[in-house]
Amino acid sequence: MDIPSESVPTVTQELFRRAVAAVRDGEDENVRTLLERLADVADTRALLLLREQLNKDLTDDDSADVTPALPAPQAHV
């Protein structure tokens, strides 16, 4: 999906840049805060662009471990 970034307001693009950097840096609390702010200003089209940018950022960084760390399963007694 190619959504031209020019169609997204500058303030939203800045939030995108900050969110992508926070995801890359593992700043979970900052990611949550930025996503809450994005929910107030971004429409579906803009959020799809964010998803595209996140995917591109993760696939462009060959050294990144994109496998999420999952907690160990808990034994049920």
Task: Give the arrangement of secondary structure elements.
Layout: H1 10-25, H2 28-41, H3 44-60
Helix pairs in contact: 1-2, 1-3
Report what the structure shows.
61% of the residues lie in helices and 0% in strands. The protein has helices at residues 10-25, 28-41, 44-60. The longest helix is centred in the last third of the chain and has 17 residues, at 44-60. The radius of gyration is 15 Å and the shape is globular. It starts with 9 loop residues before the first helix and ends in a 17-residue tail after the last helix. Residues 66-70 have low confidence and may be disordered.
Q: How much is the radius of gyration in Å? A: 15 Å
Q: Can you count the helices?
A: 3
Mean pLDDT: 77
How many domain regions?
1
- Sequence stretches where pLDDT stays below 50 over 5 or more residues: 66-70
The total beta strand count reads 0
* Percentage beta strand: under 5%
